[in-house]
Amino acid sequence: MAEKKLDYIELIAAEGSALISAVAQGPLDSTVPTCPGWDLRMLASHIGTTWTWSAAIVRERLQAPAPYEMPELKDGEVVHYLERGLATLIDALGSCPLSAEVWSFGPRPRTAAFWHRRQAMEAVVHRVDAELAIIEPADVTAPVAVDGIGEYVEVMIPRMHYQQDPPPGQLTLTSTDTGDVWICGTPVGGEATLSGRAEDLFLVLWGRRSEDLLRSGGDPAILAGWRALGAP
Which class is 8-134 in CATH? Predict the structure, then answer.
């Protein structure tokens, strides 16, 4: 039986709403431990702007990035800014064909489909950030985590090394609870491995969970080289 494909708009709506709920609980000056130097207000400004920014790219079918400016939000503006940004993004994604050509930093062909997946994973990661600031974060389900690891490998790592040669050696990522495997690079020069539950692996790759939860093997320098190319 084929696995059910993720509904990215549904995921964005659910994760975005959970993020907004966490921010609304506040206080807005709560430190976000996984985003050094940020509090909930700054996180809200970032994600709200990201939602509005990517919505403009899709809605207007831009072939270059839109301007990106994060506002300084007053207390009474924060939740409204997030709610408006989320609604704008969902409307833009839902009204644009997946195959429409738009700018992105993903692999070619560059279409609106990229932004469905990218903003879904952005919402998941930053929902975790928001909840970590005030409460114990809710789980990331295995299917979402597996898709997020795939995006990390297919989009985020190439994004970081597009102006330089990739590290030597091969990194193999393994989700122990789902059996999924991702391979970066070639074994010439050595190999390294990183494995664990899909949720742990996803959040570790994004710097949202301790690497102590994973099992590593092979050459530590190769692991470090590939890890340095991914999301900050």
Answer: mainly alpha
